[in-house]
Amino acid sequence: MIDFLAKGGVLVGPILFCSVLALAIFLERLIRFSRVRIRGFGLVEKVAHYIRDGEHNRAIKLAKESHSPMGRILGNAIEVMDQDRETLETVIVHSTEEEVRGLSRYLQALATIGNIAPLLGLLGTVLGMIKAFMVIQQMGGKVNAAVLAGGIWEAMLTTAMGLAVALPTMVAHSYLVSRVDKYEAQLQDGAVTFIKAVGRRS
Does residue 184 lie in a domain region? Predict the structure, then answer.
């Protein structure tokens, strides 16, 4: 297999590196998402209940001890509850964006890998074709069909490898983005519920 891949040229290495990096990012994000506890409306309702009863300390403790994105957002919001509504909403929006950025970490790198892998493969093919035609030129007019075919398939090997890396990478990227979008929607719904509860209290 190593000898077979070596026929693809110098760009086989970067393409293989891209595949390993993409797999590492995907697995890291899967593990990260498996540990995420959004705790949307359930946590919000409990925290809002404490706030309505005037038990701010218990509300903050519950939010922070949840160790969840929603809990961190609520904890930051409770700390500025006594200020004006605009400040409260700004803090909630900023906290939500910060949590989403944390969930989206490395996804742009995954998308980049999915975009450059086929380009690396295409570049490898172009370089391989140049090499093949140089050999043909050196042979003069005596073109051997076997030599020509061998040079072409070796040149196209990198394109096949680039596409083989790019396709699953883009699928993985789309899947992870959909997970982040789902989490973001839950966080936004929880934040809106909290703001409404605070509005009712005041």
Answer: no
